[in-house]
Amino acid sequence: MKSLIIASLLTAALAAPTTPAEASPLNIRREKDCCPANGAQPDGKLPGDAINTSVLVPISKKKPDYAFPATSVAKITPDDFCTIFNLDLPAAATQGKICNLVFDFPSHEKARDLFTFHGPGHFTFTGYAIGVGAVPGQTTYNNQPAPGPSPPNPPPVMKPGNSYIINAAPCGIPPEAGTVTVSGSLCSKDTSFTFKQSNVICPLGFYVILTDDPNA
Ligand SMILES: *[C@@H]1O[C@H](CO)[C@@H](O)[C@H](O)[C@H]1NC(C)=O
């Protein structure tokens, strides 16, 4: 039973696919005035119960034993820096909900100087085991959190002006679980990307958006 729950939570948190928001008519309609939308964020905003990252920790393939401190600016460079993000899900709030892991990526106009982006925008999302996450000052490239399933169908490309659902599935967290950490890393072979996880004009970065599960 326990492993079943764990498996479904992992699936919920980091693994299922959806169509990127680019194709959404909502996005096309009012792209100029609004924040980029997706199925879980029809107005492109963060709902009040959106779950923010708790910790961002860079790792570097070229400094594989260096443990970086926590940062508020994620850094990804081609085949070197990745950033691990932790999200702490409060079990009670997730009951009967779909956990949508999103990456909100507004245009420069809607995010001021909060990100830099150079390259074709191919990224890899690696999921870690449930209940583990990056530990600032401890986690390194050679000492990453224990492995877990990765999203099977992440967006093939991410570019400014879009809001992506990386994964959407029933949260599947038992009500008595307290707070459950899920984590993953963002890397790229071809793109340099820095962003400040923030919500200034539009949200920018990783969030979990809870939506009602019609089958719950
Ligand atoms: C979210 O968390 C990050 C650190 O992980 C912090 O810098 C940021 O201000 C928080 N708030 C929002 C809305 O992103």
Automatic annotation (TrEMBL):
Keyword Signal applies: yes
Start and end residues of each Ubiquitin 3 binding protein But2 C-terminal domain: 55-198
Entries under Pfam families matching the protein: But2 (PF09792)
Keywords per UniProt: Signal
Signal sequence bounds: 1-15
Ranges that cross the membrane: none
Entry annotated with the keyword Signal: yes
Database matches in PANTHER family: ANCHORED CELL WALL PROTEIN, PUTATIVE (AFU_ORTHOLOGUE AFUA_4G08960)-RELATED (PTHR39613:SF1)
This protein's name: Ubiquitin 3 binding protein But2 C-terminal domain-containing protein
Provenance organism: Zopfia rhizophila CBS 207.26
Taxonomic placement: Eukaryota, Fungi, Dikarya, Ascomycota, Pezizomycotina
